[in-house]
């Protein structure tokens, strides 16, 4: 990648020349083409979709539908109708907890998630279990930041490079560890593809295959918010049932989420919201809903944001997700090496050390300095990092850590950004020591 040219595509760097943005896990920066596409809608064809039979409304509808087609191609969905637009990954997962979970999970059933989940893929399932008397089970992580499923490798084919995190030292050829968690009573397995704290890339294809071998009827739900912007995700190849992700983490606008689901499963689910555009017919005594995806898209959507999402996908495709992934691995490895060499014995990095098994996320604790103090001092030098629980409090509690510092990388980050982070941490040391 030509990083100088890429950085020129992001106007925020013109307004903040010294900006070191290391918080793309929270939200990515936006290229000019995405900003212009959103403005284009408001300036040229600002009308509602599906409803108007006049030119600018038809233009808006056409652009909106085109995004659905492009998203479907991007993740290799079977057809565009499997793509549901929501407001966020959070809403996509809550939609599933409401429309799927309340349909198939009953008292005495089980829901399985992991300790590394973002609250959005933890709390909805926890609350569903509390509500209906089902059992909520949680897979833990080991000391290296991997899910505690190290026997899986001998059962499942290896993932492509950079997509598997199962340690090579599998000791036997059985699924006993997974069977301790997933049973015939397990209706839902909900887990993240890439941890927003540990950076761990979970072996999604292997886990899904193993879970369905134990229970063919289990629904596998994937939070791909931290995966899809950074590496190729083929939903059909994964062998899962639902995938949720967000526009704003992949260079697109905020306020747009995506839910992919197998079409026959979407057909069987009941709507999440009721209102305009999801209606086929309404009578005094009954209502007929439209087919998916419109059944789940009540009300006026974030039209401009959805239309601009396809420009974000065009931009990522122009670079190539393989190139994006290689760049992040290089930057992440450089950051890990430099941090550990400059702050020996003072800095603890969470998650796998092997960058083949982690995303572009480096989360750490720094001596006994409070992360909020670290963030404040770094901000004085225009270095943007994230501190706290990162919406993953159960994970932090299991690690016995109150809060952490997180630096995350994307296509516009350079080794110079990493070096500035290190110099900033030296300044933290000098002030707080």
What descriptors fit this protein?
433 residues, alpha/beta, Aspartate Aminotransferase, domain 1, Aspartate Aminotransferase, domain 2, 2 domains, 7-stranded mixed beta sheet, 4-stranded antiparallel beta sheet, 15 strands, 39% helix, globular
Account of the protein in words:
It contains 15 helices and 15 strands. With 433 residues, it is α/β, with parallel strands linked by helices. It folds into two domains: 134 residues, Aspartate Aminotransferase, domain 1, CATH 3.90.1150; 217 residues, 3-Layer(aba) Sandwich (Aspartate Aminotransferase, domain 2). A seven-stranded mixed beta sheet has the order 2-8-7-6-5-3-4, sandwiched between helices. A four-stranded antiparallel beta sheet has the order 11-12-15-14, with helices on one face. It has a two-stranded parallel sheet with strand order 1-13. Helix 12 packs parallel to helix 15. The chain is globular and about 70 Å long. The two termini are 39 Å apart. This is cysteine desulfurase. It catalyses: (sulfur carrier)-H + L-cysteine = (sulfur carrier)-SH + L-alanine. It comes from Candidatus Roizmanbacteria bacterium RIFCSPHIGHO2_01_FULL_39_8. Its EC number is 2.8.1.7.
Report a brief summary of the structure:
With 433 residues, this protein is an alpha/beta fold. It has helices at residues 3-8, 12-15, 32-44, 55-75, 89-104, 123-132, 176-179, 204-214, 235-238, 263-268, 303-319, 321-342, 371-379, 393-398, 415-432; strands spanning 20-21, 83-86, 110-114, 135-139, 186-192, 219-223, 242-246, 257-261, 279-282, 287-289, 347-349, 361-366, 383-384, 386-388, 404-408. The strands form four sheets. A seven-stranded mixed beta sheet has the order 2-8-7-6-5-3-4, with helices on both faces. A four-stranded antiparallel beta sheet has the order 11-12-15-14, covered by helices on one side.
């Amino acid at each position: 990648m030509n990083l100088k040219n890429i950085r020129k595509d992001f106007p925020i760097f013109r307004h903040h020349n010294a900006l070191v943005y290391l918080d793309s896990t929270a939200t990515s920066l936006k290229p000019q083409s995405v900003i212009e596409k959103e403005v284009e809608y408001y300036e040229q064809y600002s009308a509602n979709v599906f409803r108007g039979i006049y030119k600018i409304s038809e233009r808006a509808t056409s652009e909106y539908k085109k995004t659905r087609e492009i998203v479907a191609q991007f993740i290799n969905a079977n057809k565009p109708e499997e793509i549901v637009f929501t407001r966020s990954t959070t809403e996509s997962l809550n939609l599933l907890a409401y429309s799927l979970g309340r349909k198939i999970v009953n008292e005495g059933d089980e829901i399985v998630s992991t300790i590394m989940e973002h609250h959005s893929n933890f709390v909805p399932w926890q609350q569903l279990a509390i509500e209906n008397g089902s059992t909520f089970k949680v897979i833990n992580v080991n000391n290296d930041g991997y899910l505690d499923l190290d026997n899986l490798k001998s059962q499942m084919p290896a993932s492509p490079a950079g997509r598997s995190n199962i340690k090579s030292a599998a000791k036997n050829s059985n699924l006993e560890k997974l069977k301790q968690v997933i049973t015939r009573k397990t209706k839902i397995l909900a887990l993240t593809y890439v941890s927003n704290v540990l950076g761990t890339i979970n072996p999604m294809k292997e886990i899904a295959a193993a879970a369905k071998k134990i229970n063919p009827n289990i629904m596998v739900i994937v939070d791909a918010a931290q995966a899809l912007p950074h590496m190729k995700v083929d939903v059909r190849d994964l062998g899962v049932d639902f995938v949720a992700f967000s526009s704003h983490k992949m260079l697109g606008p905020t306020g747009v989420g995506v839910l992919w689901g197998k079409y026959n499963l979407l057909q069987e689910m009941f709507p999440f919201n009721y209102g305009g555009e999801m209606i086929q017919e309404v009578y005094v005594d009954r209502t007929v809903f439209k087919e998916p995806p419109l059944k789940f898209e009540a009300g006026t959507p974030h039209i401009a944001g959805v239309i601009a999402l396809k420009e974000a996908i065009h931009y990522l495709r122009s670079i190539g997700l393989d190139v994006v992934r290689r760049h992040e691995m290089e930057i992440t490895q450089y950051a890990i090496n430099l941090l550990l060499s400059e702050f020996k014995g003072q800095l603890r990095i969470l998650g796998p050390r092997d960058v083949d098994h982690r995303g572009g996320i480096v989360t750490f604790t720094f001596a006994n300095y409070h992360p909020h103090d670290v963030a404040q001092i770094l901000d004085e030098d225009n270095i943007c990092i994230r501190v706290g629980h990162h919406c993953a409090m159960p994970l932090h509690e299991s690690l016995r850590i109150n809060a952490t510092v997180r630096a995350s990388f994307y296509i516009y980050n350079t080794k110079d950004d990493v070096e500035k982070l290190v110099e900033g941490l030296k300044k933290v040391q000098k002030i707080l020591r």
